[in-house]
């Protein structure tokens, strides 16, 4: 135990209780502490600057014109050097020629594929692209031996399956408008999956899985054990194909209230999460189609030297067909937030038809720029109402197709009820 005098001595010299009094206090503790080194440096710099003689007004005024002259003389040289370094003058043309050479070579070699982005209710844009490229004979019709491989996630998967099954343009357009009208009337939250499943069973032919096998690659996001992109190109039946498409379009909570959905005993969600624009396997070059106006934003981010310094990044940013890749020909130019809103809540029928027409025109502009068709070939015209006998024949053909689809759906329901009763 320390005595009272020892405790007072220890507190006086800053020694904590319990330490030996034999340790002598440091001399620097007995005198006032000096300021830190950086404080002393700042004070010394301030003192030296104060001691400097102020620059005379005459010398300041004499140097001002020279500074302005040098500034004016350097300005043009700076702009020229900036353009010379970035090479923006001929970069766009060089990139266009490189794209065209790649596309033409891959098309001739039979190694060209198309990838379609996720997009919700914007999937009509993808349909317009597919129909126009087929009309221009850039793409062989589905079922042809030289048909191009297609890949898509979410809305892109619906578009390529619609195309591969050979659905009539009017039938597919009418079904899209009916689906959008139902969602506008009754909402989309937590009911899109069930509504989509019933529409697919109604519209797709019974041999849809056979027509799509090897041609269509549906992008999925596998949730467990880790988030992994997957593509499926073989199905056991039409029901298996429908469930695959529903899984590819499963936006967590929005689709049916659940975070994920089951397909073939595994858990999946929207393919756009891990493969926004998937690539078909086994192709050397993929033409990327995006239904969002991302191209202008990518053009600002991409650097002219990106092709050489980071080819993988340049490949990811390389989108060929998008709503802003070609000159705008709408009465108004929708913004990116507007496209995102239309992806989750369907727009009016007039806008949906314009999306199809916009896809047709953008695909035509791309084909011309790639040198695949002459510029004299006109783009596909907008969908206009047909009058008279032609309109009646079209309505009759649409009704016949819809009635046949309804009959197939009714037979499928009867087979399902029979199978349940036999359990």
From TrEMBL:
<dbReference type="GO" id="GO:0016740">
    <property type="term" value="F:transferase activity"/>
</dbReference>
<feature type="region of interest" description="Disordered">
    <location>
        <begin position="1"/>
        <end position="88"/>
    </location>
</feature>
<feature type="active site" description="Nucleophile">
    <location>
        <position position="154"/>
    </location>
</feature>
<protein>
    <recommendedName>
        <fullName>Patatin</fullName>
        <ecNumber>3.1.1.-</ecNumber>
    </recommendedName>
</protein>
<feature type="active site" description="Proton acceptor">
    <location>
        <position position="270"/>
    </location>
</feature>
<keyword id="KW-0808">Transferase</keyword>
<dbReference type="InterPro" id="IPR033562">
    <property type="entry name" value="PLPL"/>
</dbReference>
<comment type="similarity">
    <text>Belongs to the patatin family.</text>
</comment>
<feature type="compositionally biased region" description="Polar residues">
    <location>
        <begin position="1"/>
        <end position="11"/>
    </location>
</feature>
<keyword id="KW-0443">Lipid metabolism</keyword>
<dbReference type="InterPro" id="IPR002641">
    <property type="entry name" value="PNPLA_dom"/>
</dbReference>
<feature type="short sequence motif" description="DGA/G">
    <location>
        <begin position="270"/>
        <end position="272"/>
    </location>
</feature>
<comment type="function">
    <text>Lipolytic acyl hydrolase (LAH).</text>
</comment>
<dbReference type="InterPro" id="IPR016035">
    <property type="entry name" value="Acyl_Trfase/lysoPLipase"/>
</dbReference>
<feature type="compositionally biased region" description="Low complexity">
    <location>
        <begin position="36"/>
        <end position="53"/>
    </location>
</feature>
<dbReference type="GO" id="GO:0016787">
    <property type="term" value="F:hydrolase activity"/>
</dbReference>
<keyword id="KW-0378">Hydrolase</keyword>
<feature type="short sequence motif" description="GXSXG">
    <location>
        <begin position="152"/>
        <end position="156"/>
    </location>
</feature>
<feature type="domain" description="PNPLA">
    <location>
        <begin position="114"/>
        <end position="283"/>
    </location>
</feature>
<keyword id="KW-0442">Lipid degradation</keyword>
<dbReference type="Pfam" id="PF01734">
    <property type="entry name" value="Patatin"/>
</dbReference>
<feature type="compositionally biased region" description="Basic and acidic residues">
    <location>
        <begin position="54"/>
        <end position="88"/>
    </location>
</feature>
